[in-house]
Design a protein that fits this description.
- It contains 5 helices and 14 strands.
- By secondary structure, the protein is of the alpha+beta class.
- Strands 1, 2, 3, 5, 6, 7, 8, 11 and 12 form a 9-stranded mixed beta sheet that branches. A 5-stranded mixed beta sheet has the order 4-14-13-9-10, with no helix packed on it.
- The longest helix has 22 residues.
- It starts with a helix and ends with a strand.
- InterPro entries: Fumarylacetoacetase_C_sf, Hydratase-Decarb/MhpD_sf.
- This is 2-keto-4-pentenoate hydratase.
- It comes from Pannonibacter anstelovis.
Length: about 250
């Protein structure tokens, strides 16, 4: 088998297995050794192929991670698991509370000419509170970062709150977050994210295989609350800075 043939076989097998897991709501211990991506670019290519196999609409929602073991990372959020608050969802494993930013203009990757924070902030038109729905397709705890990228960084969906016009910047957002479960304050491990920094890291990394950020796209920017296990039915609500609200009823 030639190197190109081996690469094609690896990508084909990995994307088919991941797409089937998403269709069935299942998980694997991890990919077979011969199907594991061997670089971050292979992980991103598997993202693209899984999206194509699922037959979803063009990607307009994204997950970003400003820092990872090999730098900024990103993943598409598949359209079949995107909901608008107040949302009702049957199955949720875990969730994270995040700030989502919507672009008002394209931010294509500029090789050798990184965007400044001011440019990124000027490109944001709206923001909203969001619940990222989380579930890994891997049962093993020791998967490599390339496999995590292939699995879209454990994204399993998104609930998006009501958009509000955006101006200025967001500093120390976690101090203004209230998270409730069934009307009771939900304890969480506060994480003071930098939404603009997360978006800036994404657009300057150029890693995705879907063509970059475009006007109208929504980007979630990191968890303010850590991961909340949410396998049981219940009502989750959050409020940020007395401006942004979100509501999710889990029925499953």
């Amino acid at each position: 088998m030639t190197l190109d043939a081996a690469l094609e076989a690896r990508l084909t097998q990995a994307s088919a297995m991941l797409a089937e897991c998403r269709r069935q709501g299942g998980a694997l211990e991890r990919l077979p050794e011969e199907a594991r991506p061997q670089s971050m670019l292979e992980g991103y290519e598997i993202q693209r192929r899984v999206h194509a196999l699922l037959g979803d609409a063009p990607v307009r929602h994204w997950k970003t991670s400003e820092t990872g073991p090999k730098g900024a990372m990103t993943a598409p959020i598949h359209g079949s698991r995107i909901f608008t608050s107040p949302a009702s969802v049957g199955r949720v494993n875990a969730l994270e509370t995040e700030i989502a930013l919507q672009l008002g203009q394209d931010l294509p990757f500029r090789d050798g000419e990184p965007y400044t924070r001011e440019e990124v902030l000027a490109a944001v038109s709206h923001y909203a509170l969001a619940f990222e729905l989380c579930a890994s397709r891997w049962l093993a705890k020791d998967v490599e970062v390339e496999e995590k990228i292939a699995d879209c960084l454990s994204n399993d969906g998104l609930v998006l709150g009501t958009p509000v016009p955006f101006t200025g910047d967001i500093i120390s957002p976690v101090k203004r977050l209230v998270l409730m479960r069934d009307g009771t304050p939900e304890p969480f491990a506060p994480n003071d994210i930098d939404p603009a920094g997360s978006l800036m890291a994404y657009v300057n990394a150029g890693g995705d295989r879907f063509g970059g950020m475009k006007a109208g796209d929504w980007i979630i920017t990191g968890s303010m609350s850590g991961v909340q296990n949410a396998p049981a039915p219940g009502l989750w609500t959050a409020r940020w800075d007395d401006r942004l609200d979100i509501s999710l009823t889990i029925t499953g």
